[in-house]
Structures are given as structure tokens and as C-alpha cells.
Amino acid sequence: MKAILATLVYAALGSVIPILNIEVYLVGIATQISPAQAIPVAIAAGIGQAVGKLVWYYSVVRSMDSAWIRRRLENPKRQEQLKLWEERIGGRPWLAAGVLFVSGLIGFPPLMITGVVAGVIRMNVVVFLTSIALGRGLQSWLILAGLTAVFH
């Protein structure tokens, strides 16, 4: 239970503070858990990462209403870029969910960037959380399953 809670907290913090790398943490925790614990620890990592990304999401949502951002968006080129992303992703929740899932799973496009774009287009929060949790959880499980098999 300690490994699960520690992973949840570390993953959430690492999602906000980039220097706290979850993959490095998972390598370390894999030496301390059994293969049977890989799934619950991976779930905790996925949930923690998703919850942590909410900080970025809501920061962007709130900043979109600031006077500084509104002035920056007065630029026609920026308005067009925002409109393009809103059309590409905003009206296609399955595409947006897929991009976030893949970003969480393989890290491309970077999850930091896709999380920010999700805030800009005000993506559905449940879809946002679910997509990231599934992608990061699966990535974490793949890392943990492989390493716990080697270490135990």
C-alpha cells in the first residue's frame, strides 16, 4: 500500500514539476515491488500523472481570460492558429482523447504540450483525465512488468 500511495504522490508532483521524472521513479520502485504489484502501482502512476496535469490544464484555462493573453490573441495570426486547433481537436473529442492517450503512452507529442492545448480548447475534463490516466498507466505497467520480471 505504501508503494501505491508513494507512486500516486510522486506521479502527481512529477506531472507538475518536470525534473521529477516518473520513468526513473518506476525503475527504482520496480526493485522494491513484486510482479503482482505492478498493476496497482501502474494504475496509481497513471492517475497521479493525470491529476497532476490538471494543474496545467486549469492554469491555461484561467490564463485564457487574462488581459495579457487577450491582447496576444488580438493578433490575427494567433487567432487563426487558435481557431485551427479548436477546429482540429475541439470538435472531435475522440481524436483529442486519442492524441492525449498516445501522448501519455509514448510521450509524443509531449504530454506537457498536449495538456496545455487541451486547456486552450477547454477539452472535456473527464475525457482529459481518462485519456492521460490510461496512456500513462499503460506506459507505467509496461515499464514495471518488464523490470519486475527481471528483478524478481
Secondary structure tally, helices: 8
Q: Tell me the overall shape.
A: elongated
The total tally of domains equals 1
Low-confidence stretches: none
Tell me the major beta sheet.
Answer: none
Rg for CA atoms? 17 Å
- Assembly status: single chain
Helices and strands, in order, run as HHHHHHHH
Taking the alpha carbons of the first and last residues, their distance comes to 19 Å
Rounded mean pLDDT is 90
Question: How many strand segments?
Answer: 0
Helix content: over 70%
Which range does the strand content fall in? under 5%
Helix-strand makeup class? mainly alpha
Provide a compact summary of the structure:
This protein is mainly α and 152 residues long. It contains 8 helices and no strands.
Notes on the protein architecture:
This protein has 152 residues and is an all-alpha fold. The chain has one domain (2-151). It has eight helices and no strands. The protein has helices at 2-16, 22-30, 38-63, 67-72, 76-90, 93-106, 111-120, 125-151. The chain is elongated and about 60 Å long. The model has no long low-confidence stretch (mean pLDDT 90).
